[in-house]
Amino acid sequence: MLIRNILHYIKEAFLSIGRNGWMSFASVSVVAVSLFILGTFYLVNLNAEHITAELESQVEIIAEVAEDLTAEEIEQLRVTVIQLPEVEEVRFVSKSEALQRLKERMGEEWVEGYEDEERNPLPHSFEIRTIVPQDVPVVAGKLEKIPGIADVEYGAGVVEKLFRVGSVVRWIGLTFMVGLAVTAMFLIANTIKLTVNARSKEIMIMKWVGATEWFIRWPFVIEGIILGLIGALIPSLLLYYLYGEAVNWSQTNINFLPLLPSYLVIGELIKLLLLLGTIIGALGSALSVRRFLKV
Amino acid sequence: MIEIRHVNMVYPNGVRALNDINLNIDRNEFVFVVGASGAGKSTLIRLLGLEFPPTAGKIKVLGKELTRLRRREIPAYRRSIGVVFQDFRLLENRCVYDNVAFAMQVVGARPRDIRRRVPEALEAVGLLDKARMKPQELSGGEQQRVCLARAIVNNPSLIIADEPTGNLDPKTSMEIIEHLKAINIRGTTVIMATHDREIVNALKKRVIALENGRIIRDEQRGEYS
Ligand SMILES: Nc1ncnc2c1ncn2[C@@H]1O[C@H](COP(=O)(O)OP(=O)(O)O)[C@@H](O)[C@H]1O
Ligand SMILES: [Mg+2]
Is there a single domain that holds both residue A193 and residue A281? Predict the structure, then answer.
């Protein structure tokens, strides 16, 4: 009984896709285009997030230690800082190490005359990394209140801006994706509506002889799902190929901004697209067939 | 079998199509519903077919109160009645056999039962030899006989027919009526709306006359007017 019905549904769905060849083709194309844009956006967004995170993870806090502390007091200070819950890592940078770095960066002549321990004007400092980059400003605030810390510096503006931009991008992206998905859904609904119209007499007779609502609905839902799935398969394959190319290209041309490797994202993307295609197709057809089932 | 109590039907546009209808129809009856155009015949038939609920009143068919049926109980109810329309409503792209088989397929009948029942139903209306023809290749009377076969194929206990002879000439109309009579004799209740005077007077069956949505006459072995 059940298997017979399922076979009937699938047969009906394919028959009617064949019957409405052009319309089916059109709606598959629209789903494909929508999901292609959506998929592209998804990849761009994912990589933007990835790059943002890369940059953010490089943000650290520099806390200068007050001049007059003893080695023990400095060690105590380090323990205090590492015990802050948001803090991931604390590294002590001594006066001489700081000077050494300055020398490497700027050249011999910059540090000439200051290399002696007594005359080194640079303070001891801590380099602090937080577990999540968002906590940088919070931790900086806490550090400022700790006695023994003379000065706190971090790329204040950068972190906050980066984050604000990041979440704005995310929200625009999300809105955009939802908009596209809904558009695609209505397009499928319209295609199915044509099928439904072409078969309104059959539907009417089915109702009159006592077919259940789901028996009437299933072939259309399956038709929608098939259209949605084909529509999702095309951009999946296309993006699979294109993203692979993009990754290759970026590795040779812009290796300072590494794209996420293909194997990490493309599986998820294809799953997402196929799922969306299915949902779009199913919802679209459910939408258009509902009206005919009013008793 | 059918109990109609104080039924009123007012369409959304305000037209009162039925006004305080009270009726009892027994199993195996053959009932004509007659009246001028606009009297409310179709509305009564459509209420029995559950196309919409009455504005007021109760309709009980086969022990089920129609206004109390839940949505998912409606298909089962429809399987227990057969419907025949004035305009046939056959599927043009399917042959006679498939049109009749369709009614069984869509209610999930077993293929074995379909292969047995469809020829029986076609035989009953004398169309077995035209089983592979398309509806357009048939005369109007033959098309309506296909509809009769489709209406009885699921063994309903009630047939409702709204002017089934409305598009047919008198001779063909009588043929259809003979088939309906035969169906009735084999144990199916028949309710038929018509304004065909000759048919009604020829059959001497129960006649319910409507006028402006009211029953003005209800006679056993009645005449058209
Ligand atoms: N769907 C409808 N909407 C509004 N008014 C309707 C509708 N169907 C029928 N009517 C009105 O209801 C009355 C009865 O119609 P109907 O039951 O079709 O009569 P009959 O079948 O006897 O000709 C008529 O006045 C008709 O105009
Ligand atoms: Mg009428």
Answer: yes
| A220-267 pLDDT tens trace | 888 889 889 999 999 999 999 999 998 888 888 776 667 888 888 899
The residue count of chain A comes to: 295
Rg (CA), chain B: 17
Domain B1-80+157-225 has CATH 3.30.2350.10: no
**ipTM computed for the complex:** 0.85
**pTM for the complete prediction?**
0.68
Q: Do A216 and B71 touch (CB under 8 A)?
A: no
Calculate the CA A246 to chain-centre distance. 17
| Residue B125 distance to chain A (closest CA, Å) | 19
How many domains would you assign to chain A?
Answer: 2
Segments making up each domain of chain B, as ranges:
1-80+157-225, 90-155
Distance of CA A286 to the CA centre of its chain: 30
Q: Which residues of B touch A (CB under 8 A)?
A: 49-51, 71-72, 74-80, 83, 89, 91, 102-103, 105-108, 110-111, 150, 154
Q: Which two tokens stand for residue B109?
A: 């009948």
Taking CB atoms and an 8 Å limit, are A208 and B50 in contact across chains?
A: no
pLDDT averaged over 10-residue windows placed end to end, chain A, 295 residues: 71 76 80 85 80 69 86 88 89 87 76 77 87 82 88 68 66 76 76 77 86 83 88 94 90 74 89 91 80 56
Q: What is the DSSP letter of A291?
A: G
Could you tell me how far CA A204 lies from the centroid of its own chain? 46
